[in-house]
Structures are given as C-alpha cells and as structure tokens.
Amino acid sequence: MKCTFLSILLASLSMANAQQPQAVGPGGHSQRPPGGDRMNRSFFPPELVMRNQKAINLTPEQQSAIRSEMSQTSSRFNDLQWQLSAEEEALDSLVRGDVQDEKQILAQFDKLLLVEAELKRTQLSMLVRIKALLTPEQQQKLGELKKQGPSGDPEHRPPPRGEEP
Description:
mainly alpha, Four Helix Bundle (Hemerythrin (Met), subunit A), 6 helices
C-alpha cells in the first residue's frame, strides 16, 4: 500500500514537473522557471537579454555585469544539479527496495525537496539581479520581444492557450 501510494505521488510530481514550461539555466541546462508562468512573465531569461543586446541598447557595463552574474550563478547551479541527481537516485533506491521504510523514504524526499528549492532560489536570485541591471525602458522592450517569441517575429508567436495554430 505504501509503495503504491509513493509511486503514485512520485509519478504525479514527475508529470506536474514535466508540464511546467522550460527555461534554460546557467550553463545551458534546461530548467523550469521558478514560480511557473506568473514569475516567468516578470523576468527575462539571460538568453533573451543576450540575443537582444543591440535592440535594447545594452551598455558595455550592463553586458559585463550580466556576464558576471551568469558566471557566478553557473557554478552554484551545476553543484546543485549534481546534488539533486544524487538525492533523486537515493530516493529511487529506497522506493525500489524490497523493504519500505516510510520514515527513511520521507526523510530522503525532504532532502531532495531542499536541494530543489535551493536550485530554484538560485535561479530566481539571478533573474532578479539581471532585471535590476536593466532600465525600465529595456525591461519594456524585452517584454515586447518575449511576447513575439524566440525569433522576434510576431508571426511565429505561439497561439494563445486553447487556440489551434
């Protein structure tokens, strides 16, 4: 019974995570944006800023500061991804074991959640610092560019939810 419940819980968590939109974190690693869609609308992925440096008139000082933020965050981000993988592997071993120790499984799950929270916190912190480096005009322009989609062309924008292309 406990094994079945935990399997369902882990499967539903995996499905919920898979349905979240993907963003690319420092180092080019795919990562869900912290906070989902609402938070994603308020911040600008570093890739968007880099792709549109000229369009938003990014100064050399801003470029340098953003590169520095990304570099500092990248190392921490990679360490946390390694920790997360190790915690997931440990939890998987416990769940797949013949003997199910609920306390041990839940303790390991808590460890995994702590690392995941720190990973999301690190990513959000970087996004906040990058946004703080941009002027209101640059933020407005990036918001417009984000709505246009990856190509910057409004014709290639994904259809609104519930509409067919």
